[in-house]
Amino acid sequence: MNHMVDARGKQCPIPVVETKKVLAQMNQEDQVTVWVDNEIAVQNLSKMAGQKNLQCESKQLADNHYEVVLAFSPAALNQKAEQAPVAAPKVAVPDKTVVVISSNTMGNGDDVLGASLMKSFLYALTEQDVLPAMILLYNGGAKLSAQQSPALEDLKLLQEQGVEILTCGACLNHYGLTEQLAVGSVTNMYSIVEHMMQATKIIRP
């Protein structure tokens, strides 16, 4: 059976959320076809498929019209069979510190000073003995992971040291930076909320 989700015109993370709801009700031989209107939504669905070991194919049907088809792979079926019928309560991951950055400046007042402070903060972060598990970038913070960002060198160093760098895809799109992401990967609001809920500590510079 083929299920259909028309998520065109719907903002992140609605396409992912609606698709997850359909997947939860699907039989093993079913598949779901999702229509979206932007490449960021395609990337978010593909990333979710990878996390859940799902088969995923995508193609562009027309301008602002993309199709993503998801189906259960053998690995996903095994994972689904092992899950308990009642979802276990979500718990925080031990020692998961998450740095959340919502602006390309630090603090309020002078933006030139704020930009300098943010660069200094990220540099100081690279020098810490204990690093965070990840850095979440959204709204103006999305500019920090784009090409020509003064913080790029420090973010790349943090990534090399094992820190996961995730940038809001809708934010990159809003600022016209989708094609300029230079470090880390794209994420969506659903995943941002998940990571923040699972964090043992959240740091907001």
UniProtKB/TrEMBL annotation:
InterPro entries: DsrEFH-like, Se_metab_YedF, Sulphur_relay_DsrE/F-like, TusA-like, TusA-like_sf. SUPFAM superfamilies: DsrEFH-like, SirA-like. Residues 4-70 form the UPF0033 domain. It holds the Pfam family DsrE. NCBIfam families: selenium_YedF. This is Sulfurtransferase-like selenium metabolism protein YedF. It comes from Candidatus Allofournierella pullistercoris.
